Amino acid sequence: MVGSLLRPPKLLKAQRALAAGHLSQAAFKAIEDDAVDRAIARQERAGLDIVTDGEMRRLSFQSQMTEAVDGFGVYDLDAFLWGEWYGDEDVGALKIDRPETLGVVGKLTRKRHLSAEEFTYLRSRTACIPKVTLPSPGLFINFWSPKNAIAAYPTLDSFMADVVDIMRGEVAELVRLGATYIQLDAPHYPLLLDPRTRAFYEGQGWTVDQWLSRGIEMDNAVMSGFSEITFGFHL
């Protein structure tokens, strides 16, 4: 189980109602918890030994970072979905442009831990091994903007260093809470194989060779020293 399951219609409706101010936080959490419970039960019925919460509490598999940390600026779902998508004849193709205003605008400051709620709730609801998924630091090149970030981060390297520090702190907190299995999601590595997406990554300031070498260094920095954790990797 990689991590994500489709959010049920009831949860999607509740998310819209909460955003519009038509649903209380308490009522929303009850619906969100129920969606997590159902996701866990589905995995247990399938006989999985390691389960996730289905990532029901996230806008995107990588959005808990932007939700828990100040400095990323204004964003919506398109911040994570932009690009070209292809489906069969029933689904069709879709192209979403990268939002022009996307980009870090201030020093990254953690408001709360990214996945503490996810893990503690999941742990209390299953006898299986609970797995937490975290984004690889390199994914957040998507939020690098020399124009918007220059005051807070004069270089790409300085921005990525803070991302790594936040992710490493998150792993430490999950260890403190009793986590034993953490997955890093890093689908940007295969994107380096496609000339079109590779051009975006190289246009942000690092060559493809640097993306491979420094990307691996950043992932290792997040994982290093946590010998009690089994790390999974999703490409």
Description:
With 235 residues, the protein is an alpha/beta fold. The protein has a domain at 58-71 and 104-234: TIM Barrel, CATH 3.20.20. It is built from 10 helices and 8 strands. The protein has helices spanning 9-19, 25-45, 63-68, 78-81, 116-125, 146-149, 156-176, 188-191, 195-203, 208-223; strands spanning 50-51, 69-70, 83-86, 93-96, 109-110, 129-135, 181-185, 230-234. Strands 1-6-7-8 form a 4-stranded parallel beta sheet. A two-stranded antiparallel sheet has the order 2-5. Strand 3 (83-86) and strand 4 (93-96) form a beta hairpin. Helix 1 (9-19) packs antiparallel against helix 2 and helix 7 packs parallel to helix 10. The two termini are 13 Å apart.
